Amino acid sequence: MSKTRISDLMDDLLEQTDGEVSIGEVVSKFENRGYGPLLLLPALISLLPTGAIPGVPSICGVTLFIICLQMALGQGYPWLPGVIKERSLDHEKLEHAISKFRPYINFTEKMLSPRLTVLAESPTSRFIAVFCAVVSLSMIPLEVVPFAAALPAFAITVTALGLMNKDGVVLLFGVLLQAATGLLLSQVL
Fold first, then answer.
1. Helix residue ranges per DSSP H, 90-189
2. Cβ neighbours of residue 93 under 8 Å, at least 6 residues apart?
3. pLDDT digit string, tens, across residues 66-99
């Protein structure tokens, strides 16, 4: 039976490794769930006040588009450049990082749970990735209006949380937020 909780996957990673652990090994352990954190990070950067810095929403939008494209093409886990994939952490640093993020992960696992998991799996997740890719590109023209890129960034953040936790209800809510954002923006622009 496959693990469903992120905290279980992290515990397995700690148990199955010792010494040096490459970033590639960490990403492959999370399989297709590796897309969730990679979507979450640029979306949060754009959602927070850092999104008001000129150029940040565009960079985040392009980054999100590239990640979504990989997911839409059905890659099992995110592709990383060799220089990043080969980079390694020693086991103690990995353990420290996991213990630092564990309270946040435990909190999200209490709030979100695997429901309607079919939405977080292929082929549905590939369709959602295409939708996210289009929405992420909307962040580029929205950069001219202060904090306007926060609308699609919030929708993608919710979607990423749903993907990470295989919570189809939250994932569906994220997609609906993305659609509403697109509709709102089409009326404004």
1. 91-111, 124-137, 139-142, 150-164, 168-188
2. none
3. 889 988 998 777 777 777 677 777 778 778 777 8
Main-chain phi, psi angles of 147, to 5 degrees: 65, 5
Residue 156 tokens, joined: 């993608």
Vertex 112, ends 106 and 115: CA angle to 5°?
Answer: 135
60 with 46: CB under 8 angstroms?
A: yes
Would you list the DSSP string of 40-102? HHHHHHHHSGGGGSTTHHHHHHHHHHHHHHHHHTT-SS----HHHHT-EEEHHHHHHHHHHHH
152: which 2 tokens?
A: 């699609």
Do 109 and 6 form a contact (C-beta atoms < 8 A)? yes
As given in the structure block, the two tokens for residue 73 are 């093409």
Model confidence band, residue 53 (pLDDT cutoffs 50, 70, 90): confident
Looking at residue 149, the DSSP 8-state letter turns out to be T
